[in-house]
Design brief:
By secondary structure, the protein is mainly beta. 12% of the residues lie in helices and 43% in strands. The strands form four sheets. Strands 1, 2, 5, 12, 13, 14 and 17 form a seven-stranded antiparallel sheet that branches. Strands 3-16-6-7-8-11 form a six-stranded antiparallel sheet, with no helix packed on it. It has a two-stranded antiparallel ribbon with strand order 4-15. It starts with a helix and ends with a strand.
Length: 223
Amino acid sequence: MKPSPRFFWLLVIMTMATLVGFGLLAWRLSQGAANPAYQGSLQWTDDEFLWAGGSDEQIILPADTLFYDAPSLLKNASFTLEVSAQINQAADPFTAWGIALANNNGTWTMIGINGAGYVTARQCLQTMIPRLDSCPPLAEPTQQILTYWKPFRFIHQRGATNTIRLDFLPSRNQLTLRLNREWMWDLPYVPPDQVILWGVWIQGGPDSLSGVTWDKTRVWSNK
């Protein structure tokens, strides 16, 4: 039995409407519509990075690590922390940068991305500035994996800005890591009792001088 012309055109219109709807949904998701709300109100924003060498290109020697303590401490309460930076186009692809947060046991939780499009999360002693690969990875509870260097397709190439976002919920003792608005990992995290020391860091690649340029830091929390 052949469908009537009216039914045929109704089917075509419904199919096109569905495709347009999925297209709009995908576009909205790409613009961050699926992002959860920030934890609290905006408390601090900085695009000068005077505490981390300034907003000009920071040059790092091969295999060196530079660590910068942030001047604005985090509270042991719900917060969102975002830092944006760029590994410059001519940099060694294994140059890395990231965020470090103090734990309650004298270690840093260090999250980093590199110019080759990989991400890692490690636990490092606070008594020294470590090479990231010498620190043990964290155990990611959602995917049941260890957070060694993993490729992530939403990390932008060298020469483009990337944003690392961390959301902390004290009721869960957990950090949620997003890169360029995309969820990557849930990470176990137990902060110090009162305030949380944190900072940013740069790690040079093994072969050549590299440059990293800071872009913006923003912190949301409850007052």
